[in-house]
Amino acid sequence: MIPITKPFLPPIEEFKLLIEGIWKRQWLTNMGPLASDLEMRLKDYLAVKHLVFVANGTVALQMAIKALELNGEIITTPFSFVATTSSIVWEGCTPVFVDIDANSLNIDPNRIEEAITEKTTAILATHVYGNPCDVERIDKIAKKYNLKVIYDGAHAFGVKVKGKSIFEYGDITTCSLHATKLYHSIEGGLVTTGNAELLKKIAIMRNFGISGYDSFAELGINAKNSEFHAAMGLVNLKYIEAIGEKRKELTEYYDDRLRSIRGLKPIWHKDANLNYAYYPILLENEELLLRIKKELDLNEIFTRRYFYPSLASSLPYLDKRKFEIADDAARRVLCLPLYFDLTREEVDLITRIMLRAQNN
Ligand SMILES: *Cc1c(COP(=O)(O)O)cnc(C)c1O
């Protein structure tokens, strides 16, 4: 059996060492020393000004919307994980979808302006598969119409554009540190912003809105994360270079093996580095995808159709809408297994089955 992903697990001794410290201190959660240490190290590693470690990537998005005091309509992408859209609805705002760019699979900046109404307050875009959105164009549009910008950077850990962290673009960027992501703390998330005041507000929000021993400053929620999760994050951070190297090597091996596949990979932002978070391939048509997927399934090799069906066509709490490019991409995209423990032999097997299915 080959799963779509396996979480990276560090040597257990290193994790145990940190857990023993937790036992000694008996400080389990609520902004403990490991959580603070992780925040400092991540800020350093990612080269961002301000960052908070939170419970998950979904509550990070919800707090971003809340902290910016958004209401009305938020322009967003139909091609993302459901949390991008559900957070908008959860915060009482209306998602307004615009279609994606066929090359990058990110929100198409050319279609944003026509979707802006007097109710529009923000743009919430996802860096799909870690591939940066056209941040400069989006920034220009946002400035012109006085809109806030939130990026869902759940896939974009470690990505830079022109040498600057992708998390530094927009008013707020969120990230997920869920076990299935490139870098994880079992469950976890990040909120980053260049605005110190906004960060302070989010840090208070994360802890019920408590601002002092006997005072409240904000409407808050419980979005804290525990020392145990921080411990996993700290140990995994030591391996982030090794994880990246291995994923790069496997990605290049896939590329080589799949040279004759009838499909394409999304076109990456020209000024950005790759983080190898996923291996997506846009097959020539859905029929080919289903044929390949069926053959892989029969061999217990599990792929994922990220993101099928498109959000605009499937969420029961929204009116259904069709989008030419997003729906087409959703039907044709397949993510292949990619994780630290995957071997070249397994990639050989996967790609051999794929090519056989294609050529039969
Ligand atoms: C994983 C993911 C999220 C949600 O993160 P959690 O930590 O699982 O809550 C949000 N957006 C995108 C694009 C994701 O892939």
Notable traits:
binds pyridoxal-5'-phosphate, 14 strands, 360 residues, PyrdxlP-dep_Trfase_major, globular, alpha/beta, Aspartate Aminotransferase, domain 1, 3-stranded antiparallel sheet, transaminase activity, Aspartate Aminotransferase, domain 2, 2 domains, pyridoxal phosphate, dTDP-4-amino-4,6-dideoxygalactose transaminase, 7-stranded mixed sheet
Structural description of this entry:
With 360 residues, the protein is α/β, with parallel strands linked by helices. The protein folds into two domains: 12-237, Aspartate Aminotransferase, domain 2 (3-Layer(aba) Sandwich), CATH 3.40.640; 240-359, Aspartate Aminotransferase, domain 1 (Alpha-Beta Complex). The protein has twelve helices and 14 strands. The strands form four sheets. It has a seven-stranded mixed beta sheet with strand order 1-9-8-5-4-2-3, sandwiched between helices. A three-stranded antiparallel beta sheet has the order 12-13-14. A two-stranded antiparallel sheet has the order 6-7. The chain is globular and about 70 Å long. The modification N6-(pyridoxal phosphate)lysine is found at residue 181.
Classify the fold: give the CATH topology of the largest domain: Aspartate Aminotransferase, domain 2
Ligand inventory? pyridoxal-5'-phosphate
Number of helices, counting only DSSP H or I runs of 4 residues or more = 12
Strand order of the largest sheet: 1-9-8-5-4-2-3
Taken from the alpha-carbon principal axes, the silhouette is globular
Question: What share of residues is helical?
Answer: 25-40%
What order do the helices and strands follow? HHEHEHEEHEEEEEHEEHHEEHHHEH
Protein name: dTDP-4-amino-4,6-dideoxygalactose transaminase
InterPro entries: DegT/StrS_aminotransferase, PyrdxlP-dep_Trfase, PyrdxlP-dep_Trfase_major
Keywords: Pyridoxal phosphate
Family: Belongs to the DegT/DnrJ/EryC1 family.
